[in-house]
Amino acid sequence: MRAYVPSYQLTTPASLAEALALIGNEPGTWKPFAGGTDLMVLLEAGKLPHRYYVNIWPLSELRGIEIADDYVTLGALTTYTEVQDNDVLRREFPMLCQAASETGGLAIQNRGTLGGNIVNASPAADSPPALLAYDAEIELVSTAGARWIPYNGFHRGYKLMDLRPDELLARIRLPRTRADSQHYYRKVGTRKAQAISKVCFAAVARVDGGRIQDVRIALGSVAPIVLRCKATEAALLDKHFNETTVRLARETLRREITPIDDVRSTADYRLQVAANLLVDFLVNINLQNF
Amino acid sequence: MVSKTAIEFKVNGEPRKLDVFPMSRLLDVLREDLRLTGTKEGCGEGECGACTVILNGKIVNSCLVPVAQVAGAEITTIEGVADGDQLHAVQQSFIEHGGAQCGICTPGMILAAVDLLERNPQPTEADIRNGLAGNLCRCTGYMKIFESVVRACQK
């Protein structure tokens, strides 16, 4: 049943400082509200139990994409459309752009934000696998100060995060990628557009002297959290591409992920597709280098 | 219980001032407070695009926008697409090429097409499919809609 709208507060602060004061004064009372593409769905379904929100959408402090020598830094309110429109992101972080282009339709991409995709904490979110594979770091701010932490490790369990009630996700930072890095992103859903993932796979690697280097792999929809697959990476690092490498990596990945049966797919299907995508990734980076 | 607050924004070029609950959906404010019923509700969860409007130059699902977030904004609804009695090329093309059947998806489909052609006046078929990917139609099978958009570009 639809929510009773008069019981919801959405207040607009004049600045980031004012927003932080509001959520910091009575921790847990006020929660941030950005593009609304997740929260408004819950509101309409009558499944939005929290009532008091801070409208952070107009805060310019949380917007913009900065390009520095070592890092690209994105404001938490960067939309999927803004991601796709940025030349440096298209060149160096193609998986993030692809994730943005495959999240909802254009109307969603104009409103959905990277920060929202992270703190909504869905294990089926599409940009987090790319962010994990790119070794993203995130900045959490509060009236007490700011802290940068690796994104990997931020999700502690299903919808659990290393985020205090007085903290706001402010920025996302990506170390710039090497020109010889190869990127492989694949979202598997029921249809090409407007579908939630059954499995989402993001991986980046280089091939140097016939060996796999700097390999980073992350998957969505295969565990309670979006998962960086370090054991699978270790099974591939410094290895030559051959049948044994592929077999061992597949076996490692199947042990590392823990998919479930749900409305969108089955655990068996997800295990099979995840393993197939790993092979497809390896064949693709291999073909481009031999 | 939250009280209503005053909000100002422009709809189809006209300044509007209303007392609203901040979390009211833009869709409901347009349809019920402003009686602009051309904007349709389909799914109410951002999947179908029937409630598409143009907000500060970008298409959005008006069912997913709380009205507090449109303070100071400029909004175009289907009622603002034609120039007086002169239909927009996309509207005329939908009529001529069977792009509309039951009509529920049509306002959203037309706004998405108008937005696409403003950004990209000569789209490929892939561009059209991508531009309209967030708008579902249960009648036409889409081919006549795509044809309507292609023909609108040729005008």
What does this structure look like?
Chain A is built from 11 helices and 14 strands. Chain A is an alpha+beta fold and 290 residues long. In chain A, helix 9 packs antiparallel against helix 10 and helix 10 runs antiparallel to helix 11. The model of chain A has no long low-confidence stretch (mean pLDDT 95). Chain B has 5 helices and 5 strands; from the N terminus they run E-E-H-E-E-E-H-H-H-H. Chain B has a 5-stranded mixed beta sheet, with helices on both faces. Classes of the chains: A alpha+beta (290), B alpha+beta (155).
What count of domains describes the coordinates of chain B?
2
State the shape of chain B: elongated
Number of strands of chain B: 5
CATH topology of the largest domain in chain B: Ubiquitin-like (UB roll)
Low-confidence segments of chain B, ≥5 residues, pLDDT <50? Answer: none
Tell me the name of the CATH class of the largest domain in chain A.
Alpha Beta
DSSP helix fraction of chain B? 25-40%
Biggest interchain interface, per-side counts: A-B, 32 and 32 residues
In the sheet with the most strands of chain B, the strands line up as 2-1-5-3-4
The SSE string of chain B, one letter per element, is EEHEEEHHHH
**What is the CATH-assigned architecture of the largest domain in chain A?**
2-Layer Sandwich
- CATH architecture name of the largest domain in chain B: Roll
Return the structural class of chain B.
alpha+beta
SS summary, helix count of chain B: 5
State the end-to-end CA separation of chain B: 53 Å
Shape estimate of chain A = globular
- The level of helicity of chain A is 25-40%
Strand content of chain B: 15-25%
Tally of separate helices of chain A: 11
